[in-house]
Amino acid sequence: MTQKSGFGFYRPGAPASAGAPGSGTPAAPQPEPETAEPAYLSADAEIDLAHDDVATKVNETLARLDNELIGLASVKQRVREIASLLLVDRARERFGLSTSKPTLHMSFTGGPGTGKTTVAMRMAEILHTLGYLRNAKVHAVTRDDLVGQFIGHTAPKTKEAIAKAAGGVLFIDEAYYLFRAENERDYGQEAIEILLTEMENERGSLVVIFAGYADRMGDLFAANPGLSSRVPHHIEFADYAHDELMEIAELMVEKENFVFDEPAREAFDEYLTLRREKPNFSNARSVRNAIERTRLRQARRLVALDRPITKADLMTLTADDIRGSSHFG
Ligand SMILES: Nc1ncnc2c1ncn2[C@@H]1O[C@H](COP(=O)(O)OP(=O)(O)OP(=O)(O)O)[C@@H](O)[C@H]1O
Ligand SMILES: [Mg+2]
């Protein structure tokens, strides 16, 4: 294991090889002494991309993404690609192979509850670990945080939001509301213009993520070619399949130290079938809400019991707890 303390990873402009003495990383060939001047690795040096401290931390975050989020294979793939790009970029810098920082503004398109906000937070962690962002914060906003009601109100609002997000991620939820096709003089356009300027100026110290439904985001980008060209990474979040939602439910239940007994599992499966056909179904968010209401019914059932309760009672969600839902009515 590598040492946990003293972040021994390379920062641009810092002396190369800040490898802590005694960290015993077998991969570091001939650690160079610390010097005051930036020292690049010699041309015949070798770097182990997979095992330095930063790569290890990034891999931990990627592993959490894998374990905590069901499905989303193509999303996870895209996140890995971006992480790889930055890892290689770091390695190149260590050899003095300077490049301009890549542009990492993104769009996350998909239906409600498909994991966009959750993935944005993981992305911020990864970009911070890789030294691309100063912090791992996600500042989430919607149209109302950026666009004013009156002339002169929009610029300060948008700039304030950007300032709050500085060094991290500005996550614009339902970003398509910034664009109103029916109103040319809508202040949303002004917010977009300011964002465009700042996205260019702050390249490398701010990542803007535009999130929303795919079709409506398409309209936003089609109407703003300048925006489209500054957002190189488009990541799509598909609706979850029935079995994935079932797995998500199991994961959420387990995380909260509950269990479905076997009849409960069947009941939840049926519940999902009913719920998915109804309006406002919001993928994993609906699953989370359903589990919360199930817990309410479990609590009601337990409090009404006229016998002492056990640990197993407290943990178990039963079919009755689920079938109490109005969707079965
Ligand atoms: N693949 C998944 N596996 C496990 N849990 C998930 C998954 N996707 C989403 N969740 C959970 O579902 C909830 C909703 O996810 P999240 O808020 O990230 O979705 P969203 O796409 O941002 O939704 P919205 O569009 O409604 O803002 C969160 O509690 C999240 O942890
Ligand atoms: Mg969200």
Automatic annotation (TrEMBL):
Q: Where is the composition biased (Low complexity)?
A: 12-27
Annotated region (Disordered) at: 1-35
Domain of life, per UniProt, equals Bacteria
Which Gene3D superfamilies would you find in this protein's record?
A: 1.10.8.60, P-loop containing nucleotide triphosphate hydrolases (3.40.50.300)
Q: Which UniProt keywords apply?
A: ATP-binding, Nucleotide-binding
Pfam families documented for this protein: AAA (PF00004), AAA_lid_6 (PF17866)
Domain AAA+ ATPase residue range list: 102-241
Q: Which family does it belong to?
A: Belongs to the CbxX/CfxQ family.
Its recorded name reads: AAA family ATPase
- UniProt source species: Ammonicoccus fulvus
